[in-house]
Design brief:
Layout lengths: L2 E7 L4 E9 L2 H18 L3 E11 L3 H13 L8 E5 L5 H12 L4 E5 L2 H9 L7
Parallel strand pairs: 2-3, 3-4, 4-5
Antiparallel strand pairs: 1-2
Length: about 130
């Protein structure tokens, strides 16, 4: 494994801090499955993902493979809301992941600041984006 995930259960959400690098779809899928497993275990639907030191060295095909895998597992139906602090040195990959997941009905949004991410994450989901 070329990355680490540290989870902390907060009062209102699950915090996932990721460090390292992922450079293929299979490893990214593994990362996503571990995140889903922890969300189920802690019974949290709101997740703040701090990926500021997590590098995604993925091709567009890798990202689409990841998004299709998650869609086939009906992840959007779990009601998860993910606010992601993206790596500032890797913005293209973060935007591609966001686009691929949102196009598959996931509630996923990238942010530059933790304050903005928490504000979006904790607001009522019925409000317009």
């Amino acid at each position: 494994m070329d990355y680490t995930q540290i989870f902390t259960s907060k009062d209102e959400y699950l915090l996932c801090i990721t460090d390292g690098v992922v450079n293929d779809a299979e490893t990214f899928i593994e990362w996503g499955l571990h995140l889903l497993s922890k969300a189920r275990e802690t019974r949290r639907t709101r997740i703040l993902v701090d990926n500021r030191t997590f590098r995604l060295d993925l091709s567009p095909l890798d990202v689409i493979t990841f998004a299709n895998f998650m869609e086939n597992r009906d992840v959007a139906k779990l009601g998860l809301r993910l606010a992601v602090l993206s790596n500032p040195h890797n913005p293209e990959a973060s935007r591609l992941v966001e686009t691929a997941l949102v196009n598959r009905s996931a509630s996923y949004k990238s942010f530059h600041t933790q304050q903005d991410a928490q504000h979006w994450l904790l607001r009522e989901s019925s409000l317009p984006e």
